[in-house]
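Reminder to self: keep the SMILES exactly as supplied, no canonicalising. Ligand is S-adenosylmethionine.
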Amino acid sequence: MKRDIRGELSGILPDDLVPLVPRSFDVIGSKGRAVAVIEVSTELESYGQVIGEALMRVQRNVQSVLSKGTERMGEFRVRDMKLLAGDADTEVLHRESGCVFKADPAKVYFSPRESTEREKVSSKVRPDERVLVMFSGVGPFAICIAKKQPTAYCVAVELNPDGHSYCLENIRLNKLGDRVRAVQGDVREVCPALGEVFDRVLMPLPKGAYEFLDVAIPMVKPSGVLHFYHWAPRDDPFSEGERILHDAAGEFGRAVEILERVRVSQYSPSAWKIRIDAKIS
Ligand SMILES: C[S@@+](CC[C@H](N)C(=O)[O-])C[C@H]1O[C@@H](n2cnc3c(N)ncnc32)[C@H](O)[C@@H]1O
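Structure tokens returned for the bound complex:
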């Protein structure tokens, strides 16, 4: 049975601090080598190394422990993380749903918690669809879609040069070179220059996707589908997103038919990350 990190730290940390150690943390990687990302509150900061070492003892595949540090920042949505213990090389191979992703969580956005969401969206893709993944990161949506739907073709657009490099590597690792194309750059410049429209467009940037709807809407084929992500208030999660979608599509004389409204995950006590799937006619 896996030991509990608080149990491991009792007798090492002052008794009153042990309950402040989070019981759960993200683990990115494989059985052989993984990185853990844990939230360390201010009270625990001076015990960072002790906590990191304890975590590596309870979870033996973890070779490096990073503290979450800041919130996700800037355009790349990366935290300023701090190495608490272990190997300073934090690049790992993560396996999910028959795919493998290489990523360094200190340099790029990658969340193992979103595997179910990737599965859900991938399962909607029909044979022969051409799919545009805006804000594609290291490529998990595009790769998951191409693996699950063997006749689909994906274009993945990412601004962060490290995210793009990992995406290229992940396309190679998953042997999808003929069905996933990665393009580095700002969606605002890259997408209009692609010279095609798509059956399906994904916008997995909950913080600010709405600012790029003027780019995304024209990329959707008539009657194609848009997957729009948004941060929304808990008590009324869909009204604002739907209004924004209708307004943005209206600018192009396009109509919106809502297909599905999904609460993806809780972002904070008052906010949810949501997805609205819409047919853009
Ligand atoms: C929330 S992350 C999601 C990454 C990926 N889709 C995933 O699920 O792991 C959003 C990504 O959008 C990228 N990004 C932000 N602004 C962008 C822009 N204007 N053009 C292209 N990519 C952008 C960031 O660098 C980041 O990797």
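Points to follow up:
The chain has two domains: 5-90, 111-280.
The first strand starts at residue 26 and ends at 29.
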